[in-house]
Amino acid sequence: MALDHVETLECTVCGATYDPDQIIYTCPEHDGVAGILEVVYDYDVIHDRFDAPLDGDIRSQWKYQAFLPVDTEATPVALNEGGTDLLDTPRLGAELGVDINVKNDGRNPTGCFKDRATSVAVTKARHAGQDVVTCASTGNAAASLAGYAARAGLDCRIFVPESAPEGKLVQPRVYGADVLAVAGSYDEAYDLSMDVTDSYGWYNRNAAINPFQIEGKRTVGHELAEQTQDSIPDWVVFSMGDGCTIAGCWKGLREFAELGYVDDTPKMLGVQPEGASAIHDAFHGHDEVDDVADTLADAVAVGRPRNTLKACRALAESGGTALTVTDDDILAAETLLGRAEGIYAEPAGAAPIAGIRRAREQGIISRDESVVAVVTGIGLKDTAGAERAVGDVIRIEPTLDDVTNQYGTAKKERRGRS
Ligand SMILES: *Cc1c(COP(=O)(O)O)cnc(C)c1O
Ligand SMILES: [Zn+2]
């Protein structure tokens, strides 16, 4: 059988197991709490099938196909996701006072890390003969799903809060999706998408409850393990919304270490905005819950994260921690990343940089440690946000005089000297 490397789906709450061949989202045994399922693999089968050399040459995430929970007969729905660069970022490091590399996942096909997961989900949906895919999203998952649905020839209907940045509402429509802009928060859009999935039977990509979503996100961990095998970083830093991304990466890092492909694992640092800090609060044992999200980092503006459990396990198992940053810190990080290294991130993508600065100040990360920040999304979808952090354009008439006013008299005679 061709899904024989997937043993079972196991409930993270009660341990009940489910058949990986059926379409099931969460364990139905738990009222109120989501019984999130974990995909359990037969690593003997995977290890036998995985024959790609760990030589740093990563064209796309499908290098790790043996690890992905798709039928070996299924043709991947792909746009060249993953295989992103791990960049040296010395000027950024000097600014933050730490050895840092940036994994630039904004380079994915729709401009966001989520393509890793979407590619897997849409491959599974098409292979299962589904015609319609859906999800709720703060914007990026919607754009990502719409792109891959178009690639696969499936219909796509997505639910987003109407406040999502314009670019994230336009992009999925260019991909031909129906964009249902909900007059409400992401959390309300999410609940609606779940009701719709129940009544219409559309294939739901919602990351937290589709057990296969996190599995695609593991490939960022596989890539990082491969790219840093000679010098494993002390820390890997992510922003957290629902918590699936950091959990997925951790699972990928952990399994490569357990299989002996690499010697060790990094500690995970999860960063949240002060205004949307539920996972951070749960990790540190704060009981008072504020489930309203208020932050300009729209991609992580999640009031009730759906995967707090898996995210907190990733932080704890790796020996890492969580911290919060302000929106001003995030904007400052966005322009720092652009100015210092030529990387244009959206706020949620820049938040890890703000988190590293905070962690250095608090002594969580020490000067002699090494850090990888994963930039999860490109900034171009949300120029309005960035506009608050950059200076104005310099308006001039089309005359040399106006340039002279700006930069002083041109010194012609210096030409050719240097
Ligand atoms: C979705 C998203 C995140 C957070 O991922 P979660 O799985 O929700 O924690 C971070 N950055 C960007 C750019 C995203 O789109
Ligand atoms: Zn259960």
TrEMBL record:
<keyword id="KW-0456">Lyase</keyword>
<comment type="similarity">
    <text>Belongs to the threonine synthase family.</text>
</comment>
<feature type="domain" description="Tryptophan synthase beta chain-like PALP">
    <location>
        <begin position="78"/>
        <end position="377"/>
    </location>
</feature>
<dbReference type="InterPro" id="IPR026260">
    <property type="entry name" value="Thr_Synthase_bac/arc"/>
</dbReference>
<dbReference type="GO" id="GO:0009088">
    <property type="term" value="P:threonine biosynthetic process"/>
</dbReference>
<dbReference type="GO" id="GO:0004795">
    <property type="term" value="F:threonine synthase activity"/>
</dbReference>
<dbReference type="GO" id="GO:0009097">
    <property type="term" value="P:isoleucine biosynthetic process"/>
</dbReference>
<dbReference type="GO" id="GO:0006567">
    <property type="term" value="P:L-threonine catabolic process"/>
</dbReference>
<dbReference type="InterPro" id="IPR050147">
    <property type="entry name" value="Ser/Thr_Dehydratase"/>
</dbReference>
<dbReference type="Pfam" id="PF00291">
    <property type="entry name" value="PALP"/>
</dbReference>
<dbReference type="InterPro" id="IPR004450">
    <property type="entry name" value="Thr_synthase-like"/>
</dbReference>
<keyword id="KW-0791">Threonine biosynthesis</keyword>
<keyword id="KW-0663">Pyridoxal phosphate</keyword>
<dbReference type="GO" id="GO:0006565">
    <property type="term" value="P:L-serine catabolic process"/>
</dbReference>
<dbReference type="GO" id="GO:0004794">
    <property type="term" value="F:threonine deaminase activity"/>
</dbReference>
<dbReference type="InterPro" id="IPR036052">
    <property type="entry name" value="TrpB-like_PALP_sf"/>
</dbReference>
<comment type="pathway">
    <text>Amino-acid biosynthesis; L-threonine biosynthesis; L-threonine from L-aspartate: step 5/5.</text>
</comment>
<feature type="binding site">
    <location>
        <position position="140"/>
    </location>
    <ligand>
        <name>pyridoxal 5'-phosphate</name>
    </ligand>
</feature>
<feature type="binding site">
    <location>
        <position position="376"/>
    </location>
    <ligand>
        <name>pyridoxal 5'-phosphate</name>
    </ligand>
</feature>
<feature type="modified residue" description="N6-(pyridoxal phosphate)lysine">
    <location>
        <position position="114"/>
    </location>
</feature>
<dbReference type="InterPro" id="IPR001926">
    <property type="entry name" value="TrpB-like_PALP"/>
</dbReference>
<protein>
    <recommendedName>
        <fullName>Threonine synthase</fullName>
        <ecNumber>4.2.3.1</ecNumber>
    </recommendedName>
</protein>
<comment type="function">
    <text>Catalyzes the gamma-elimination of phosphate from L-phosphohomoserine and the beta-addition of water to produce L-threonine.</text>
</comment>
<keyword id="KW-0028">Amino-acid biosynthesis</keyword>
<dbReference type="GO" id="GO:0003941">
    <property type="term" value="F:L-serine ammonia-lyase activity"/>
</dbReference>
